[in-house]
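[Q] Does anyone have a clean structure-token version of this?
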Amino acid sequence: MAGVTLDKLSKNFGSAKNPIHAVKNISLSVRDREFMVIVGPSGCGKTTLLRLIAGLEQPDVGTIIVEGHVVNDVLPKDRDMAMVFQNYALYPHMKVFENMAFSLKMQGIPQAEIVDAVEIVAKTLGISDLLDRKPSSLSGGEKQRVALGRAIVRNPKVFLFDEPLSNLDARLRVSMRTEIAKLHDRLQTTMIYVTHDQVEAMTMGERICVMNEGEIMQVDEPLAIYNHPVNMFVASFIGSPPINFITGRIINEEGRTYFVEKNDNADTTLRFDIGERLSLISEGRRNQEIVLGIRPEDIYDHRRCNAAQPSQSLYARVEIAEPMGAETNVYMSTGAHTIIARVTGSDRYLTNEQLLMRLDLSKVHLFDPATKLAIDRKV
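[A] Here you go.
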């Protein structure tokens, strides 16, 4: 098994005059046997980073260390890594058995050992009955299992996954991400998994590395990132529906501290008491512009909250409601902003209905609008 360390890694594409900075000065340590998920939007550099680790791209600057050894000049085939691609990358003219056995055959492993290894992995993945079929006759989920099997049979030091589930339907994605998580528990091998899907990241990763525009935004355990995002990008990218951002000011009035929405229409301005915790966090920023972040699941219908305090609640007008079954996403206008609340699915919400909503002030985040950074996020 092996840990992977990236030290000040950079990779540019394009010309010298017009470079495309795919990876910018990234340092990251993946622990031995860890399941690390690299997540970010399309074009953020996560796949390039994975290809650098695999040796399919060469860094312009920086060092890649595997099991304590620098591997920058080591060929991909000699890095003892197995990569599972988004498009499966199976050999179409070979049967499933031949696809899974190919790397072992290239290593000169005896045929009897190859047969044993392939059959054991095929049984583990539930594809023993597919060994005599070609990829063209397989479903997407079956192809992905074969691609996984081809990687597992090599018993590599490091597994690399490049958005392996993005071509599958929603139900099959849920099933396959569970299977991959189980495989990690069984194999106890270092795994680095790239995805744009924050649900995959939250449910699979022991730690998550959030990337944007070629840079690492935050590396931490899933719930730590969810509860303590370092900036507005991380806060908005992790969580579904996304976090609500409301721009306004913090003011003191008659011994209380209020958040006042930035709004040119004074008749509909949102205003509420932010309580002691947020007052302490925002101290020194009175009357300055600030961004308040509140997740949809932390906004509650006043009718369901007997202990709600009117001074710490807000009125909003329903724009549209999306019943999802067990829950409903309610889009509401506060005056200058549209916010989303994720509430129980048992209630009906009508367009233009006025609602009194309570915020869970213990879950509110504050951000600097200039730097986009969280303000005193650990308080």
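[Q] Thanks! Anything notable?
[A] The chain has a mean pLDDT of 90.
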